[in-house]
Design a protein that fits this description.
CATH architecture: Alpha-Beta Complex
Oligomer: single chain
Distance between the termini: 30 Å
Number of domains: 1
CATH topology: Spore Coat Polysaccharide Biosynthesis Protein SpsA, Chain A
Largest sheet: 7 strands, mixed
Order of helices and strands: EHEHEHEEHEEEEEEHHH
Structural class: alpha/beta
Shape: globular
Strand content: 15-25%
Low-confidence stretches: 286-290
C-alpha cells in the first residue's frame, strides 16, 4: 500500500557552510570523526531500534567522503538491511539524488517520507506513530510537534520541547511523481494547509552538542532520566548519559526561562497559522530549500 522512507543527509558540501558552532572547520577529518561518533551513538542506533521496521532509510554522503569513512558506512550497510547509503556530489545534487534513489526500489501506490538529521534520535515508536496516520491521503504532512531536547557533556540536561514545523516532519503523498518531504525546507510547511498537527506524542529528541550549527538548549520541565531508554541510544553512551543526568532542581530558573521562550514561539506560530498570515505571506515570499 505504501513505501516509507526515512531520509537523512550527512556530510554534503555546501558553499555557505564553513564552520560549526565552536568556530572549527566542518568536513575536516576531526569533524567527520566526531560526527560519525554522534551518528553511531544516537541516530543509527535509534533508527535500528524501531519497533516497526517497515521502512527504508536513505542516507546521503558526499562523494568526497574519505575512504576510511566509506568503509565504516559499508559496515553500517552490512549490519542493518534497512540502511541504504548513497554518495552524491554536494548539496546541489541532494534533491535530484533522492528522486533517483527512490526509483531504485519497488515503490507502492503511496509514499511516506520522513526527515531525520544525522545527529538526532527518534523514539522507538516513531515509525509506528507516523504510519498510524496513513489513510490513503494524496498529500498530507504529519507534524509531531512535541519532543525532547538533550544537552550532552559533563552535565546532561533533558527537557521537553514543542516545535511547529520541525525537522522531524513526515509527508504522505501519492507514489506517482512523489517529491518527498525534502522538496522544501521544514519551515516551508507553515505556508501549507495540508498539515496534520499531532500533539502530546514525544517521538523525537534533538541532541545539543558543541558542534551544533544553530541549535541551543531550550528544554524545559521535569523529565525522568529513564526517558532516555526509549530512544535506542547505543551502549555505553546511554548509561553515561544517565550517570551524568543533571536534575531540574539545579536548573529550575533556566527551565522557566526556556519554557517562556518556547511557548512564545509556539503561540506566535499558531496565531499566524490560524489567522492566515502564513498563507498570505507564502504567496509572495517562498522559502528556499534548507
Amino acid at each position: 500500500m505504501f513505501q516509507h522512507y526515512i531520509i537523512t543527509r550527512f556530510n554534503l558540501r555546501r558553499g555557505d557552510w564553513i564552520t560549526a558552532k565552536d568556530g572549527k572547520a566542518v568536513l575536516s577529518d576531526l569533524w567527520l570523526e566526531e560526527r560519525f561518533e554522534l551518528f553511531d551513538n544516537y541516530c543509527f542506533s535509534s533508527v535500528k531500534n524501531q519497533t516497526n521496521q517497515n521502512f527504508k532509510w536513505l542516507v546521503f554522503f558526499d562523494t568526497k567522503t574519505p575512504e576510511k569513512y566509506k568503509e565504516i558506512i559499508e559496515q553500517y550497510r552490512l549490519a542493518y538491511s534497512n540502511f541504504h547509503p548513497f554518495f552524491v556530489d554536494g548539496m546541489e545534487s541532494f534533491l535530484p539524488a533522492i528522486t533517483e534513489s527512490v526509483s531504485q526500489f519497488d515503490n507502492k501506490e503511496y509514499m511516506i517520507s520522513s526527515r531525520l538529521d544525522n545527529d538526532d534520535c527518534i523514539h522507538k515508536d516513531y515509525v509506528k506513530t507516523v504510519q498510524s496516520y496513513f489513510n490513503k491521503q494524496a498529500y498530507l504532512a504529519i507534524d509531531l510537534i512535541d519532543g525532547y531536547r538533550m544537552e550532552t557533556g559533563r552535565r546532561v540536561r533533558l527537557g521537553k520541547m514543542k516545535n511547529l514545523f520541525n525537522p522531524y516532519i513526515s509527508l504522505i503523498e501519492n507514489g506517482d511523481g512523489a517529491k518527498t518531504v525534502w522538496h522544501k525546507g521544514h519551515t516551508y510547511w507553515k505556508y501549507e494547509k495540508r498539515v496534520l498537527t499531532v500533539k502530546n506524542s514525544r517521538m523525537w529528541m534533538t541532541i545539543i552538542h558543541e558542534k551544533n550549527k544553530k541549535n541551543t538548549f531550550l528544554g524545559y520541565g521535569r523529565v525522568r532520566s529513564d526517558v532516555i531508554d526509549d530512544f535506542g541510544i547505543k551502549e555505553p553512551k546511554r548509561l553515561e548519559l544517565k550517570a551524568n543526568y543533571y536534575d531540574i532542581r539545579h536548573w529550575r530558573v533556566r527551565s522557566m526561562k526556556n519554557r517562556i521562550k518556547v511557548m512564545e514561539a509556539y503561540y506566535s506560530k499558531r496565531f499566524k497559522e490560524v489567522s492566515g498570515v502564513y498563507r498570505i505571506k507564502g504567496k509572495i515570499d517562498k522559502d528556499d530549500f534548507a
